[in-house]
């Protein structure tokens, strides 16, 4: 509800008489309601067009002040009147909720994008205290867009301000915030891992003695060395169980004769040789098992011409083996 006032003389502090008001500033000298301030002013060209219209046709809509003279609506009209040299016409708001008036007059101005509308609405919540659900319903705005604007505002006032003034789209600002949050989460996870496995390095990062990247690299080197050490120790344990009497690889590393990577290579070579030997032995034993009937036949006729003919075609080592097998069977 508004009541019309008589025109008053209007000279802003920013626009002294004789100065170019557009070149100096577009902001009026009156105190502006904080929610009103959230809505961007028209561009210089648009403001000049409005000034020409007011000069030619007069001021169509009153500038709205509250009972204390705080401007609620009409900053652009006020600035345009000053540019045009036209005495502005004011009216006083007598309602109980100036925020409702401000939004009803400004939220759907054609020069505002949907992202700007959402951001301004979210910023204004600090004055209204309303939920996103209520703001979406009251102003007919997308709740998902309001939610995105709220995320941007929460994590980056700088990006939120760029959205508000139309310098950055809400989608781009939201994506930037999402990327920053993801990077921050990754860095936090990296630091937590460092603190768990290397508290000393984490402390150095906290004290800014080294970077997180350098500390992580140092931890990875430690973990890799420990992994190599454990692999070599396991290989030494197997070698010892197999009856190998040569010095343990871990011992050679501790003495400085070889490095852990070199010990790992030797351990791998040992593992490959052991695996191949076991495989060949299994194959040989399978052959013996498959042909054990021959040994049993020879054992039953050890001194016959049949047995002699078979063994005569063998090498000395093979004949010795046959003799032992026949005896043991």
Automatic annotation (TrEMBL):
The entry's keywords = Coiled coil
Q: Which residues form a coiled coil?
A: 170-204
Q: Which InterPro entries match?
A: ParB/Sulfiredoxin_sf (IPR036086)
From which domain of life does this come? Bacteria
Q: Does the keyword Coiled coil apply?
A: yes
Name of this protein: Plasmid replication/partition related protein
């Amino acid at each position: 509800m508004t009541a019309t006032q008589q025109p008053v003389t209007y000279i802003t502090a920013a626009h002294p008489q004789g100065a170019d008001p557009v070149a100096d500033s577009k902001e009026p000298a009156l105190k502006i309601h904080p929610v009103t301030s959230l809505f961007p002013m028209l561009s210089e060209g648009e403001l000049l067009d409005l000034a020409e219209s007011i000069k030619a046709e007069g001021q169509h809509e009153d500038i709205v002040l509250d009972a204390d003279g705080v401007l609620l609506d009409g900053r652009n009209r006020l600035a345009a009147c000053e540019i045009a040299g036209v005495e502005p016409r004011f009216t006083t708001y007598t309602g109980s909720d100036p925020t409702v008036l401000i939004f009803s007059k400004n939220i759907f101005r054609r020069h505002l994008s949907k992202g700007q509308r959402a951001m301004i609405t979210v910023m204004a919540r600090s004055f209204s205290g309303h939920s996103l659900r209520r703001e979406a319903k009251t102003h007919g705005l997308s709740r998902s867009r309001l939610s995105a604007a709220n995320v941007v505002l929460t994590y980056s006032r700088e990006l939120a301000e760029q959205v508000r003034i139309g310098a950055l789209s809400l989608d781009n600002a939201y994506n930037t915030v999402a990327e920053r949050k993801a990077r921050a989460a990754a860095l936090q996870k990296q630091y937590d891992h460092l603190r768990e496995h290397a508290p000393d390095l984490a402390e150095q990062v906290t004290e800014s003695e080294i970077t997180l990247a350098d500390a992580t690299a140092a931890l990875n080197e430690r973990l890799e060395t420990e992994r190599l050490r454990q692999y070599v120790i396991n290989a030494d344990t197997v070698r010892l169980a197999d009856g190998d009497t040569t010095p343990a690889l871990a011992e050679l590393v501790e003495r400085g004769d070889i490095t852990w990577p070199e010990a790992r290579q030797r351990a791998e070579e040992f593992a490959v040789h052991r695996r191949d030997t076991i495989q060949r032995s299994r194959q040989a034993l399978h052959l013996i098992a498959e042909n054990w009937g021959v040994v049993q036949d020879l054992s039953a006729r050890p001194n016959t011409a049949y047995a002699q003919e078979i063994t005569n075609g063998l090498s000395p080592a093979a004949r010795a083996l046959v003799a032992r097998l026949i005896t043991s069977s």
